[in-house]
C-alpha cells in the first residue's frame, strides 16, 4: 500500500468514524487533556493499522477494536503512573467547554460507564452502538456467552445504581 493510499484511507476512516472514536475517548478519559492524549494515541494506532486491514471484518468493527484496545492499554498505563485519589466529583465536568446543554442522564451514564472495568466499559459502548453479541465477541476476543453474561450483569448494575439516584430519570 502506498503512502498516498494510506493517507486517503485514513482521511476517509477518520471522517466516517470520528463519533465512534470520541465515544471511546470519553468513556476512558475524563479530563480534556487526557481525552486529547488518548485521541491522539488512538489516531496513531489507526494510522499504523491501515496496511494490516484485510477486510475480514467491517471497517467499523476494525476501528472499534483498535480504539478499545488502545484505550484499555492507555488506561492501564495511566493508572500505573497516576496515584491520584481524586474522585469523579473532584474532576472538572466532561466536555466543559461546550456551550450545548448536556443531558444529565447522558452525563450520569458516561460517569457510570467510566467506573466499570475495561472490558465492561468496552461492552457498554458496543451495546450503545448496537453491535451484536457475535461482533462484540470478535472485537473483544471473548466468547459470545461471556458477552451475554457480562451484559446482563452490567444492565443489572446500572439499573440498581439508577434506582439509588432516581433524579436522573433513568
From TrEMBL:
Q: Origin, by domain of life?
A: Bacteria
The segment(s) forming the RNA polymerase sigma-70 region domain are 16-80
Its BP terms in the Gene Ontology are: DNA-templated transcription initiation
Query: Which Pfam family would be a valid example here?
Result: Sigma70_r2
Q: Name one GO molecular function term.
A: DNA binding
Entry keyword set: Sigma factor, Transcription, Transcription regulation
UniProt-recorded name of the protein: RNA polymerase sigma factor
Q: Which organism is it from?
A: Spirosoma aureum
User: Gene3D superfamilies per the record?
Assistant: 1.10.1740.10, Winged helix-like DNA-binding domain superfamily/Winged helix DNA-binding domain
What NCBIfam families has UniProt attached to this entry? sigma70-ECF
InterPro entries, per the entry: RNA_pol_sigma-70-like, RNA_pol_sigma-70_dom, RNA_pol_sigma70_r2, RNA_pol_sigma70_r4_t2, RNA_pol_sigma_r2, RNA_pol_sigma_r3/r4-like, WH-like_DNA-bd_sf
**Where is each RNA polymerase sigma factor 70 region 4 type domain found?**
115-158
* Family classification: Belongs to the sigma-70 factor family. ECF subfamily.
Amino acid at each position: 500500500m502506498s503512502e498516498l493510499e494510506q493517507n486517503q484511507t485514513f482521511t476517509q476512516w477518520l471522517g466516517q468514524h470520528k463519533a465512534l472514536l470520541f465515544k471511546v475517548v470519553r468513556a476512558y478519559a475524563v479530563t480534556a487533556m487526557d481525552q486529547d492524549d488518548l485521541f491522539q494515541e488512538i489516531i496513531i494506532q489507526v494510522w499504523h493499522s491501515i496496511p494490516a486491514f484485510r477486510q475480514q471484518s467491517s471497517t467499523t468493527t476494525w476501528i472499534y477494536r483498535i480504539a478499545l484496545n488502545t484505550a484499555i492499554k492507555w488506561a492501564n498505563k495511566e493508572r500505573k503512573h497516576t496515584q491520584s485519589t481524586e474522585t469523579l466529583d473532584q474532576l472538572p465536568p466532561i466536555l466543559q467547554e461546550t456551550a450545548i446543554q448536556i443531558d444529565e442522564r447522558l452525563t450520569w451514564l458516561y460517569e457510570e460507564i467510566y467506573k466499570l472495568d475495561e472490558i465492561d466499559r468496552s461492552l457498554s459502548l458496543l451495546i450503545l452502538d448496537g453491535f451484536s453479541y457475535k461482533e462484540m465477541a470478535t472485537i473483544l476476543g471473548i466468547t459470545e456467552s461471556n458477552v451475554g453474561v457480562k451484559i446482563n450483569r452490567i444492565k443489572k448494575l446500572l439499573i440498581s445504581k439508577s434506582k439509588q439516584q432516581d433524579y436522573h430519570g433513568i
